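Worked example

This section walks through a single chain of length 430. The input is the sequence exactly as stored; nothing has been trimmed or padded.
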Amino acid sequence: MWKTNLELMHYLNILGEKKPIPPYPHHKDYIYRCYRFFEVDNLFSFLTINGKFRLIKEFLTNRKYKISIPRDLLIDPTSSCNLKCKGCWAADYDRNNNLSFEKLDEILTEAEKLGVMDIVMSGGEPLMRKNDIVKLCRKHHKLTFAMFTNGTLIDEVFADEMVKLGNLNAFISIEGFKEQNDYRRGEGTFDKVVAAMDLLKKRDIGFGFSACYHAKNYETIASDEFLDFIRMKGAWFGWLFNYIPIGSDADVSLCLNAEQRRFVKEKIEQYSLKHKYAIIDFANCGHKAFGCVAAGNDFVHINANGDVEPCAFCHYSDSNINDKSLEEALRSPFFKKFRRAKPFSSNYMRPCPMVDVPEAIVELTKLEGVKSTHLNNPESAEELVRKTIPFADAWKTVADEMYKDLPKKEKRRLNIITRLYLRSNDIVNR
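Given that input, the structure is written out below as tokens.
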């Protein structure tokens, strides 16, 4: 199914082994493009993030539809989950919320037409819809699929199916070694997660890991010992998410203070550089990701209730996919206002309107029709900000110090490339 022309091949060095990367839509191509995206350091690498000058093609497509079309569409097929992790917003959701197979198929058909490249599934636990996921991957074989999964439902049969499909990958959630992981995710989950990793590594599936770091596990997550363990288990790259107190009953004690967050940032950057290993830390990668990528600038989220959100952490929306098309949702007043407001800070180490510049999310949600989508425990932006602003204020001091210490050349590069990126998207929003 996949092209093998050497001229189309890229390579990644994984644990000292040169791994060939089959062309899009193979799941390993998605990993390769993630590496490329977070390594942009000049105009040429910016223009060729997703292949030979594909960015220009994307710009022309955006102009055609007069909207920003994301490369990544994150969808929750279900809010159901076989775990109940402490502090997880999905645990607050109605466990009966699902997007039907027919609706998912309709969304993916439109996404493919618009030029979306990658479909990422979360939840809940997406593998509660295991059979539907397989059918969708087969039918929409021109798209790359990935899933944020707790890994406990990956067995031999499903791992073999992933090999056959080729365009499906997994980002397996793990939050440290056994004690730290099972503290939030439940007793016995660490052993199941490790077993799932072994199954995927044995089949040469280039899976990634996903970790939520918080006040009780951040030192472990950022440690060489843990990251070495994860790499040896076969993870080709990693996603890190800082804990955000989303929902009216969220546990604020799990939030990191500024020095803890700085510790993670510095340790992860040192490890990534030393091992040439991509670890995408959303809280601390704003300066590597053109600021905020939400609301259609590369990324958008649809929850299991159908609400179309700027990202998985921003639980506010003025559109529902059950009432309008994806194209219409991307053109919504909320999304347009969101995109036009970027960058939220001139310091790209403070990219997020939820946790870094929380006054921004208050202003963004002051639109008719925008509502909280946090189902069982909804909260206004003002209520969220009351929790996050002390952390944001403390981080501003630290982030400003770090930005001040950057070489002038690095600051100039950040400003030129980030503003070019945002400007190219802004043109189609006028």
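What to look for: Residues 306 and 348 are 31 Å apart (CA to CA).
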